[in-house]
Structure formats: C-alpha cells, structure tokens
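user: can you give me the structure for this one chain? tokens are fine.
assistant: on it. calling the predictor now.
[tool input]
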Amino acid sequence: MAVDAYRGLVMFLMMAEVLHLSHVSRAWPGSTFWRILAFNQTHVEWTWFSLHDLIQPSFTFLVGVALPYSLRSRQRKGEAFSRSLAHTLQRSFILVALGILLRCIHRPPIYVTLEDTLTQIGLGYTFAFLLAFARPRWQWTALAVLLFGYWLAWALYPLPPASFDYAAIGIPPSWHIHLLHGFAAHWNKNANLGQAFDLWFLNLFPRTSPFVYNGGGYLTLSFIPTLGTMILGLIAGRWLLTAAPSLPFRRLLLAATALVAAGVALHLLGINPIVKRIWTPAWTLFSGGLCFYLLAAFLWLVEKRGHRTLAFPLIVIGMNSIAAYLIANLGEHFEASHLFANLADGLRTHLGAGIEPLLLGGVTLLLYWFLLYGMHRKKLFLRI
C-alpha cells in the first residue's frame, strides 16, 4: 500500500497540471505563495529541479520496486523463465508503442519520438527484468558501468565551436543564461551526443518533416540513465522483499543520503551537471536518492504508522497508474469540451481571470479522481 500511495502521489501531481498554477501566479505577480506553487508545477529550464521534475524518476523508480514482487508472484505460480521473458518483451513493446501514440496526439500524422515516460521505461524494462535475476553486487556493478560509460561517451563527444549557431537548434538569446560552460558544456541543450544521435536515428523513420531538435531538449538515449533509476528501484524492492515483515528504514535512508550527496558533488565539482531533461548520470543519482527518501516516508506513514485511511485517496490513483497516466495525457480534450468552456466563461466573469483556472482545474481534478474511484470500486485496473 505504501508503494501504491507513493505512485498515487506521483500521478496526482501529473493530473494536477489542470490547476494551471502558472496562470494563477501571473495573475498575482507579487505573491510569493503562488510563485512557489507555480514553480513546482513546471519543469526547470535546465539544471537542478522542481517538485514536478520528480514525477518521471519516481514513476520509473517504482517500476523497479515492483519488479521483485512481480517475479516472485510469477515464480510461485510455476511460470517458466521463457514465458516471463516473453511477457516482459510484450510489456516493453506496448509501453513503447503507447508512449509514441500519446506523443502523436495534436501533432503531424507521422511523428515518431521516443522521449515519452512510458517509452523510456519500455526501452529499458527488459534489461531491468534480466538484472532482477542477478546477484546484488552485479546489479550495483551494472548501475556503475552504465552511468560511467554513459558519462564518458558524452564527455568525449566534441564541444561545438565558439561560433556555433545556437538559434538553429532552438535556443533563443534569452535562454543563454542557462548555457553551461567549461567541461559541463558537454551537457548543454541540443548541442550534445544525444542530440547528434536523434538527428540521425529519428530521421530513419518516415516523417512529415525532418527531425531537427526537440524543443525541450529531451532525448531518445535518456532511456540508458533512466534504466539506472529503474535499477535503483529494483534494489530498493529487493531490500523490502528480503526484509519483510520488517522495514529496512536504515538501509533506505543511508542509500538516499549517499546518492543525493554523490549527485550534488558531481554537479558542484563540474564533473556532471544535474539535468533532468537529458537525465544526466548526476540526475540519476540525485533523483534516485530523493526517491529513496520518499519511499521511506511513505513506508513510515502507511505501513509503520498505519495511516491507510489518510493515504486512501492516493492509493486509489496509484493502483490504477496507467489509467491515471492516460487521463493526465488525454484530459485536455475533456477540458476543451463545450460544457467546460461555458463553465470557464462563467467563472471568469464572476471571479476574475486569476482564480478561474484554479477552480476549473479543481473541478476537473475531482472528476478525474471519482472516475478512478469508480474503477477502483468495480475492480477495473488497467494492466500491461
């Protein structure tokens, strides 16, 4: 239940984008309260993080946490390794395909990209499955080799020349304050190894227009360090499984502290910046540590303190995370409906343009939750 509650919080933050807190903040520019809320509902431009930046790593981390439990269940049913592997490959394919499909909505008819959360998880999921059968030391070794190898490949990729035209890759002059310098420049937006790979790889697919760059700087190759986050979740899940019925708080908190410290050290020393958008190795360590902290917090709240009633609204969401993900991605069609357009006009007229998106979003979010609650009552859970 702790894992479901944590996953529920992650999906709630994703669905809560309908609150449009940035619009509210702009209506009250002098309010620190709304500015902080708005900041934490958006992704940072490049380095460091906001609360919103923890959605994808948390979702990925929890996929890893659930793996040992899933494998144990299948093994207890006597399922052969070959059948489990076939199911894993099928799941990976569906996740990749679903992620591509969601990215194609509101875009040209032929639009293939591989940076969606589901796609990134799908690309690494089979590797995580295979690592679940390895000894703990080999899981840690795989994580270290993966992150170091990925860091080295980027570090060796040549920097752009001093006269490089950043505007040609979607970086306007106003964005230059976010550009990194010195050795850290290897991880600048759209001027890196991952961009070079996508410029070649994504143009192998049929496209309405050639791929030039991703506006947010997101990359296909990010699935490699994303796999690192999944491995950290796998390790956490194994600790929970082997320690049961006890809860390994000490181990989780020590790992969390060590990972956060390592990520911050890499960033401050200029070895590797913390950048979520391209999922740098430092981000894998830093965000992975925060995920360990959050997992420990939910274990303490739900399992140790027994606050399951308090966590129930989140558990409803977390137990149907795929449905919640689809609602969060497809919900804008609901917001654009004729009924909600009329409601928005009424709220704007009587309450003002500042509070209208918040109240309208609150109603939308409540309807999302009741939809998931109805599915929960009828035991309708989307599974892949």
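assistant: here you go. The mean pLDDT is 90. The chain has 15 helices and no strands.
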